[in-house]
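Holo prediction — magnesium ion.
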Amino acid sequence: MGELQALIFDVDGTLAETERDAHRVAFNETFAEYHLDWDWSVELYGELLAVTGGKERIQFYLDRYRPDYLRPSNLDAFIAELHQKKTARYNAMLVNHPIPLRPGIRRLLMEARQEGLRLAIATTTSLQNVITLLEGSLDHTAANWFEVIAAGDVVTAKKPAPDIYHHALKALGLKPTQCLAIEDSGNGIRSALGAHIPTIITINDYTRYEDFTGALLVVDHLGEPNQPLTVLAGKVAPVQYIDIALLQRLVS
Ligand code: XBP
Ligand code: MG
């Protein structure tokens, strides 16, 4: 394997717990605004997360759970409109109430920058959502910390397809083995491994029982000196937190 040159981060569930209390709420508020009797409970949303991408998730919900819904003839355009409104609500929510980053994210990003590692993002969420999250929760300049932000509809096939990671690799001009992906979900790891990028997983409540076969390491979070991580799978000597030296060792 080549020496580690870049870290590629997933966003939702990896950088911050954005799904349950932000994306889900923004979807529901939008549905209410349109007087739709669609209400995504915390539990149902866990099932809907099987499909990545907000527009694709709405379509999946209708197909799977609402055969009764009388579809308008321009359903795709209607879903796109709903999704645009949802994105606006999500962004307003994050500006007013920034969501904390998960343990170890800020520390690892700072260390990566210090060590001269390149940074990128590969996500199925919309670009504006990523920028708002980074600026509100990390630093007002943080969108510039990432050389590549591969997001949303920049590819047609979203995760678990490998396209978004291929896109990021091409933009970085790196081989997969020179990179490491940090993901939180089964769809995420399938996408990264599909592009042959070694991957570590930080689980969360929605993803903890998913299939992470092929992960270099599965942990509950990246850890901090005062908040040790728990290793769930993978061969690694006992550690309190994941740092760049450990990531270098993992990929070498
Ligand atoms: C997670 C997703 C996204 C979000 C919603 O993305 O699947 O669809 O749930 O965002 P990630 P949009 O790859 O970062 O885990 O509504 O903007 O699609
Ligand atoms: Mg994710």
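READOUT: The chain has two domains: 6-17+99-251, 19-96.
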